[in-house]
């Protein structure tokens, strides 16, 4: 089972890849996924959901996340990390 730090690093890496950023550029976890500096659109958020679902399934069979959850209005980096941790049973 991964630690909170490992989950955080993985989520940040996935977000950075889809936003064409360096992971070190994502420092403010209170930023919404659709706002600067990420500026992720609906399509990118859908791909993030798919990537996170694959990551979660590799760790815990049956763990999942839906694209609707990732596309939820106002979802921040911090809330996304918390959601993934919750689904994996990692203490946040």
List the helices and strands and how they pair.
Blueprint: H1 4-19, H2 42-59, H3 67-70, H4 77-88
Secondary structure class reads mainly alpha
Number of helices: 4
Cα-atom radius of gyration: 12 Å
What's the quaternary structure here? single chain
* Biggest beta-sheet profile: none
Tally of strands: 0
Structure description:
By secondary structure, this protein is mostly helical. The protein has one domain (4-23, 31-88). It contains four helices and no strands. Helix 1 (4-19) crosses helix 4 (77-88). The radius of gyration is 12 Å and the shape is globular.
In short:
54% of the residues lie in helices and 0% in strands. With 92 residues, it is mainly alpha-helical.
Distinctive features:
4 helices, single chain, Acyl carrier protein, ACP-like_sf, 0% strand, 92 residues, mainly alpha
